[in-house]
Write a structure and sequence with these properties.
This protein has eight helices and ten strands. The chain has 363 residues and is of the alpha+beta class. The strands form two sheets. The protein has a five-stranded antiparallel β-sheet with strand order 3-2-1-8-5, covered by helices on one side. α4 runs antiparallel to α5, α4 runs antiparallel to α8 and α5 packs antiparallel against α7. The longest helix is centred in the middle third of the chain and has 37 residues. It is globular.
């Protein structure tokens, strides 16, 4: 009876479990242009409709829009979040991730522009070539209005020519090799006592748990920010109101400081495993998991920094008062906080997945 149950699980429930375990779609749109590693040449897009994978050989590839030759991103300063990673953010790279109002990527998959390879217009790529050692370009925008598929004439392609994926994309569709490994063929304890002294088996459980705690702290910041906004609106034109505004903004900064102090050690500990992950991730799904965990951690860090910068801008504006619109500034702060929360929870999911599936499959 037990054998029949295991067979039924592998046949029906295993793919279903993986599909349900996929992260929920977010309102933002995140692009990953892979230029190195096992996924080199692929373009991944996470959006409200699910996951799209362009230019993958074999199963799971999403047809690009008709006439596709590249992607252009445009918006106001602060709308576009981007960086080059390998797959973690390459902090040593000049101008990597600095504020921009536009970026573009031209594809090497046709003779659209007469180029032999990728061409990137970013502050870190003056020659248009991917930086040495880079595995991917990450770009995140608030929604599809900030991104355009472009044709050979650099004109915008209507999304009508793009077969968007269905919501709740099945990971087995994009990574069938991963789903071909049934639970019965995997060790019941990914980190047995003999390996428990290894850095990965020490860091991953602590990282996963710590990220849950940081996300909880970040969710409580919403109430502190909301109270600060109300204090600003109530005291903006009152005599002596500046001191009350200063105290409320300081409360937001204090809460954010606690969050960053809890997050940064987790981020640093995970980043210290980069060389070991590079040696371990020999399969496409393993590299994909590593790239996503790294990306969500890096975007969390960037967005927490945006929160801090926004609070500093609010504090400076409150001192001037004239012409200040608190609603707009606090709306931007809330947007950054929500994005950071989404990425923290996604990073926790992928760190857990690395511990549960990648470590036993690769060892």
């Amino acid at each position: 009876m037990r054998n029949n149950t295991n067979y039924l699980f592998r046949l029906w429930l295993w793919p279903l479990f993986l599909a349900l375990a996929m992260p929920a779609a977010r309102a933002t749109v995140t692009f990953r242009i892979f230029t190195g590693g096992p996924l080199a040449g692929q373009v991944h897009i996470d959006g409200p409709d699910g996951l799209a994978v362009f230019f993958r050989e074999g199963a799971g590839s999403t047809p690009p829009p008709n006439g596709f030759c590249g992607i252009r991103w445009a918006g106001e300063t602060g709308d576009i979040i981007w960086y080059w990673g390998n797959p973690g953010r390459m902090d040593y790279l000049p101008a990597n991730g600095e504020p921009v109002t536009q970026l573009s990527y031209l594809a090497p998959y046709s003779s659209c522009f007469g180029k032999a390879g990728h061409s990137f217009e970013t502050p870190s790529t003056p020659d248009g070539k991917p930086p040495a050692g880079a595995h991917m370009l990450v770009v995140e925008v608030p929604d599809w209005h900030y991104a355009s598929f472009i044709n050979a004439a650099r004109g915008r392609i209507r999304l009508g020519g793009y077969d968007a994926p269905e919501k709740g994309t099945d990971i087995c569709h994009h990574f069938p090799d991963f789903c071909s490994n049934p639970p019965a063929g995997m060790p019941s304890r990914p980190c047995p006592p003999a390996n428990y002294g290894g850095p990965i088996c020490q860091v991953l459980p602590a990282t996963s748990l710590g990220l849950v705690q940081v996300a909880d702290l970040l969710s409580t910041m919403a109430g502190v920010d909301r109270q600060a906004k109300e204090e600003c609106l109530d005291n903006l034109y009152r005599n002596g109101g500046r001191n009350q505004i200063r105290r409320s903004v300081l409360a937001c900064q204090s809460r954010l400081y606690l969050i960053e102090q809890a997050f940064l050690p987790l981020y640093t500990n995970y980043r210290n495993l980069d060389s070991q992950w590079e040696a371990l991730n020999t399969q496409p799904f393993s590299h994909y998991s590593y790239a996503l965990a790294s990306m969500h951690l890096d975007l969390s860090k960037l967005l927490l920094q945006r929160c801090r910068e926004q609070l500093m801008a609010i504090e400076a504006a409150a001192e001037q008062k004239q012409g200040w619109q608190p609603q707009d500034d606090f709306l931007a702060l809330e947007r950054y906080r929500r994005q950071a929360y989404d990425h923290l929870t996604a990073a926790q999911l992928w760190a857990s997945r690395q511990q549960a599936w990648v470590v036993p499959l690769e060892r």
